[in-house]
Amino acid sequence: MVNHGCEPHSQWWKLRLFTRLKKELPGWLVERLEVSQPVILLLDEKIKALTVQLQAEAPTNVPRGMGALTTVVIGREIADWHRFKNRRQIASYTGMCPGEYSSGGSRVQGSVTKHGNPRLRSNLVELAWRLVRFQPTYPPVTKWKKVLTKGAQATGAARKKAIVAVARQLAVDLWRLHTGRMTAQQLGLSVPERSVQGEQ
Known about the structure:
Blueprint: H1 15-24, H2 27-56, H3 68-78, H4 87-94, E1 98-103, E2 106-112, H5 118-134, H6 139-143, H7 145-148, H8 156-178, H9 193-199
Antiparallel strand pairs: 1-2
Helix pairs in contact: 1-2, 2-3, 3-5, 4-8, 5-8
């Protein structure tokens, strides 16, 4: 639609919207869309069903802002939190550790390596942004508050660097949480009351 000068529509494949579009779009374009519409519609339904299934498998005692789906996805990407022996290993697995350039006596840290699991990295960054809103007293968020809060006078590069730092620390803290080294409260993460009651 975009390539042919027509206004794009979000989720155009849904029956009600697609029925309306068939009256507005040129016939030749509708013919092409009708080829992929039922396939996308079926895929969309399967994704929704799998999403519900994944959310149902999430634990009930997750900290505020950590959605059920994100919790399960991160857990499955990690597979076994106990396979990491220290915080450096889990941080390295995320690919969010800064690279290092050394020459003689000089030592310069560069951008993040992006080695490791890209799906885990993207989910951690997304989760870190949610914690800025839902967990404002979480220590890593507090540390970068002046850069990350809404209306902050900061460049895009500075915000990106800050949120990656929060996400990297979050990965370490989730490792501490899931291996029993620390509780959510000790990490500075608040848990909804209903979750706490569910644990008792």
